[in-house]
Write a structure and sequence with these properties.
Elements: E1 18-20, H1 24-32, H2 49-60, E2 69-77, E3 87-99, E4 102-112, E5 118-121, E6 124-129, E7 154-160, H3 163-169, H4 180-185, H5 195-209, E8 215-221, E9 230-236, E10 240-245, E11 248-258
Antiparallel strand pairs: 1-3, 2-5, 2-6, 2-8, 3-4, 4-5, 4-6, 7-9, 8-11, 9-10, 10-11
């Protein structure tokens, strides 16, 4: 789409339903670019994929994601999704608020199976920066920290990103994830990974601890993760989990439920 064809996000805007599928080949390829093993999920989908899929549902309905930054997302697995299982994506924009740096856009996106049962829910809140306010700070009220004392966490794996791997993982729709010029224009020193890419590391760690049938996470994107970063996964089992760099929380999740 050209810039003139994009829709302005407005409260109440409804997305047209569309069918989506995560195949085994797609999952293996994408997780390999994260340094993760897709086979560890035992034939199930890592539902982190539905964060980016939900964003692309918006793009397909004329809502640009260019330059947008994930702030927080809910991620609920009502039941496991089988690789190759078709789901129907539905959603709407539920709130648009002016903030010093532009707008925050809240979107409710969920995925239903053939019987109409909700299988995955992925509501989110993102910042839509205004280039004329690039010097402004602030994107609304900052939610309270989930992880308050990193020294009390159990450490798991560490990971090293490279520009090549991040570019290979990233897809069209938001060039701040794979183009230096776009990232610099948005105020970042280098491209940053998409929120969904970071969540793969959280889900992978949860699956390493136990086979996960259902869960409910509140995920907060606190600091950007650059395409050349080194970070680790740490958590307080079944309460919280996060990505850390040099003792600072980059992404954190409150575990509301896990079964």
């Amino acid at each position: 789409m050209t810039e003139s064809e994009w829709q302005e996000p407005v409260t109440g805007f409804q997305f047209s339903p569309e069918q989506v599928v995560v195949t085994e080949a797609l999952q293996n390829e994408k997780l390999k670019n994260c340094g993760l093993d897709g086979q560890a999920l035992k034939g199930h989908v890592d539902i982190s994929f539905y964060i980016a899929i939900g964003i692309h549902v918006g793009i397909n309905n004329g809502i640009s994601a260019e330059g947008n930054v994930n702030m927080l997302t809910g991620l609920i697995q009502h039941r496991p999704v089988r690789l190759g299982e078709p789901l129907i994506a539905r959603g709407a924009i539920t709130n648009v608020v002016d903030v010093p740096r532009g707008q925050t856009v809240e979107t409710d996106v969920w995925f239903e199976d053939e019987s109409g049962e909700r299988v995955v829910s992925a509501p989110r809140k993102s910042l839509r920066p205004d280039p004329h306010k690039s010097a402004e700070r602030g994107a609304g009220e900052r939610p309270e920290a989930v992880i308050k004392d990193v020294s009390q966490l159990t450490s798991f794996e560490s990971y090293t990103l490279t520009p090549e791997l991040v570019k290979a993982y990233s897809s069209e729709g938001n060039s701040i994830h794979y183009e230096m010029e776009s990232a610099n224009k948005a105020g970042f020193r280098a491209p940053i990974i998409g929120g969904g890419m970071g969540v793969h590391y959280l889900i992978n760690t949860l699956w390493q601890q136990r086979e996960v049938m259902s869960f409910d996470l509140d995920i907060y994107f606190r600091r950007p993760i650059f395409w050349d970063d080194v970070f680790s996964v740490a958590g307080s089992p079944w309460k919280s989990i996060g990505l850390l760099r040099e003792g600072k929380v980059l992404t954190e999740a409150r575990i509301n439920k896990i079964e």
